[in-house]
Amino acid sequence: MDYFPIFLKLQGAPCLLVGGGEVALRKARLLLSVGAELTVVAPELTPELAEMAKQGQLTHLRACFEPAQLSGRRLVVAATNEREVNRQVSVSCQTLNIPVNVVDDPDLSSYITPSIVDRSPLVIAVSTGGGVPVLARLIRGRLESLIPSGFGRLARFAAGFRDRVKAGIPDVERRRTFWESVLEGPLAEAVINGDEAAAVQAMERRLEDAGKQTAQGAVYLVGAGPGNPDLLTFRALRLMQQADVVLHDNLVAPELLELVRRDAERIYVGKARANHALPQGDINLLMVELAQQGKRVLRLKGGDPFTFGRGGEEIETLAAHGIAFEVVPGITSASGAAAYAGIPLTHRDYAQSVTFVTGHKQDGSIHLDWPALTRPAQTVVVYMGVSTAQELCLAFIEHGKPATTPAAAVEWATTERQRTVAGTLRDLPELMSKHHIASPALIIVGEVVGLADKLGWYRTRVC
Ligand code: SAH
């Protein structure tokens, strides 16, 4: 490391800013936001800086820089566009051991300013040693999107309990575990979601129980989207990185599982058709058991948990056992396939409604409302329909849908393995078997499928 990272307290500290332009204005705002007592030395000020001086937020020295102005300063920033002036400031400060930053000039600076993510009191500073500020800003951008705005609230909330927790749990190691379970558990989620009253109550209870150490687990039923990791929600990603144990099935791509916290336990409860690794009832009870052991259980589901995901059944069991849970929606595969295959599910000219159905057989046959599904001006998306494609397409035709209606199958939608075959109700089953389209795939029926020729943008079509 070339620089020693610190956070400096500058409330009421005399600081000098050399320069009166736009760059100086940004630095002035930053210094004032931490309560510095700011003097700006410059022959001229921008209108905003002049206004700030007029309102008494800073003192303006209408002059050129002179070393005498440094007397008593805690920190100096040089933001003029004249390198010679900046150099003089730098040399004078370094003689007097006053920390100095020359904007965008690490060679003349004794300290550099990082890119910051401000969730005060939580602040993250990113630096590339002054070498590649753009990279620091890119990383900052990523962190901005990863760390919800509610984290500031969480940091304030936790700070408010700091002394009491310290007094209540004197042992350092136990206190650390306590904070970890608070900051990564349902209580923290409540604060982030803005339910502070509930969080305060829960915190009081936790403090009372601190001696007894009764950890309370929770289950997060999380939609992982159709397979492309970029389509995860921020919330899904965050919960994935906190989980103690993850229950997943075969719809969850390995790339997604890699994003789960490294030391989380992984349990495969997969469901290849007719080869249920674990019956649904057992999965439900396993989650209850793990949560009762105080674990944060992540139930990761392909697509959206409430769209053909049996998410409802899973949380009914949790609710019945009084386990805390949360549901995080995901992009359902129909939305993913539609977007990535260029098939808008509704379209003013072709489809005023869209229906999602399952092609899965129950008691040996497909139970669907055919009169409704064959009405014109709608799109039908069939989940779990690969093995019954032939029967499905035939049933559409038998119930009055023209055999020439466009129909497509999209396999592994949104992933690098995506393949689309498109034809009509009459020839789709044959095309699917010719190209060995296998699960997971969706069948989309309706005039909108015809738009894929024009609107498809992701990966080439198979046919
Ligand atoms: N909850 C999931 C659906 C689970 S049912 C969701 O919201 O998407 C399983 C079916 O979803 C599969 O048989 C297939 O029809 C569909 N499916 C899931 N992921 C898919 C993908 N990446 N591409 C195409 N179909 C997919």
From TrEMBL:
Residues that span the membrane, as ranges: none
Similarity field: In the N-terminal section; belongs to the precorrin-2 dehydrogenase / sirohydrochlorin ferrochelatase family.
EC number: 2.1.1.107, 1.3.1.76, 4.99.1.4
Name used for this protein in its record: Siroheme synthase
Catalytic reaction list: siroheme + 2 H(+) = sirohydrochlorin + Fe(2+); uroporphyrinogen III + 2 S-adenosyl-L-methionine = precorrin-2 + 2 S-adenosyl-L-homocysteine + H(+); precorrin-2 + NAD(+) = sirohydrochlorin + NADH + 2 H(+)
Precorrin-2 dehydrogenase / sirohydrochlorin ferrochelatase: region residues: 1-203
UniProt-listed GO biological process terms: cobalamin biosynthetic process; methylation; siroheme biosynthetic process
Pathway the protein takes part in: Porphyrin-containing compound metabolism; siroheme biosynthesis; siroheme from sirohydrochlorin: step 1/1; Cofactor biosynthesis; adenosylcobalamin biosynthesis; sirohydrochlorin from precorrin-2: step 1/1; Cofactor biosynthesis; adenosylcobalamin biosynthesis; precorrin-2 from uroporphyrinogen III: step 1/1; Porphyrin-containing compound metabolism; siroheme biosynthesis; sirohydrochlorin from precorrin-2: step 1/1
Gene designation: cobA
Keywords: Cobalamin biosynthesis, Lyase, Methyltransferase, Multifunctional enzyme, NAD, Oxidoreductase, Porphyrin biosynthesis, S-adenosyl-L-methionine, Transferase
